[in-house]
Amino acid sequence: MKNLLLAAFVLIGLNANAQEEETPPQGWSTEGKFQLLFNQSAFNKEWSGGGTSSVAGNLMLDYNLNYRSGSFTWDNKLLANYGLTKLKGDEFTRKTSDRLELNSIAGKQLENSNWYYSFFANFRSQFSKGYAYSKNEDGIEIRRETTHFISPAYLQFGPGMMWKRNEDLWINIAPATARFIFVDPDFTSVPGYKDGAYFGVDQGDSSRFELGASVNAYAKYELLTNVTLENSLSLYSNYLENPENVDLDYLMNLEMGVNKYITANFIFQAIYDDNTIGAFQIREVFGAGLTYNF
Q1: What are the residue ranges in the chain where pLDDT is below 50?
Q2: Is 138 inside any structural domain?
Q3: Residue 266 to residues 9, 225, 229, 285: CA-CA distances in angstroms?
Q4: Residue 13 structural domain
Q5: Residues 81-111 pLDDT 10s
Q6: Does residue 32 fall inside a structural domain?
């Protein structure tokens, strides 16, 4: 846990000197970005180097709604991400990304300081069904539903302390965070189900409660002209069960602007949650497409 907390502070510290002090605007401010990324590969039948034709698309929405009045701030961020890919010869179209997340954090600034008393809330789920794929005895591809909207869904909230330079650079520490995990009880009521096998939820239940400590950090800055790097890191330790097993969710988005409307993006995400699977889940997406800022 100490090493992961240190990593969060290093993430902030490496970028702190690169940020310029700004006079924060008063009242409401909004900022949004919509992106459509696309990548495709194709090989004709004479191609001897090997390869499978594929097509993939990814939609992303990032919307910020922030408020400031004197020493009080309230920042809200909506993240929506959905992607599909189709490989030639596959029976089914598969998801490459599926994320729905809402973050909200309110803070009361300490006088002459970058520190705030804070209270945060986070909700995270997905848009559509997820599947496990396999082949039957005849070699035909089949799939089994494993997740869907609000199964799972995560809700966590709690008081804490936030260090904030501006909307693009902050870290929040909440030592008393409540977390609820919601699932469809149909998944936990199948014959032979063992307690905790589905996102930590017990047999026949539809939710799980945890109490622990969380650390959330965010850093966004310009590497080069028209090249922006955005980092977000979430850590959580459950006091009630195996507190040494820290859940981690790290997301990096490298955006390279070609012009006002065309960008290339590289997205990297790493998740560790031993209630889901006792190993790192890694996702990478690279593509070029259209961007609309509003």
Answers
A1: 1, 3-4, 9, 14-20
A2: no
A3: 24, 16, 10, 6
A4: 2-130+152-178+210-293
A5: 999 998 887 889 999 889 999 999 999 999 9
A6: yes
Query: How many other CB atoms are there within 10 angstroms of residue 184's CB atom?
Result: 18
36 touches 58 (CB < 8 A): yes
- What is the DSSP code string of 160-172? EEEEEEETTEEEE
| φ, ψ for residue 12, nearest 5 deg | -75, -45
Backbone phi, then psi, for 16, in 5-degree steps? -60, -40
Number of neighbouring beta carbons within 10 Å of residue 218 = 23
Task: Say if 240 falls within a structural domain.
Answer: yes
Rg (the chain; Cα; Å)? 21
Take residue 188 and report the two structure tokens written for it.
């936990």
In a domain, 139, yes or no: no
pLDDT at residue 140, as a whole number: 87
Beta bridge partners of 99: 81
Backbone angles phi, psi at 137, to 5 degrees: -65, -25
- DSSP letter at 15 equals H
CB-CB contact of 220 with 227 (8 Å):
no
Q: Which residue has the tokens 């090989």?
A: 43
Looking at residue 233, its amino acid is L
pLDDT at 272: 93
Residue 85, Cβ neighbours under 10 Å: how many? 18
- C-alpha distances out from residue 267 to 1, 239, 249, Å: 26, 32, 13
CATH number at 7 reads 2.40.230
Closest CA to 147 of 93, 198, 203: 198
112 burial level (CB within 10 Å; 0-12, 13-18, 19+): exposed
Contact status, residue 98 vs residue 127, Cβ threshold 8 Å: yes
CB 141 within 8 A of CB 132: no
Question: Contact, 233 vs 249, CB < 8 A?
Answer: yes
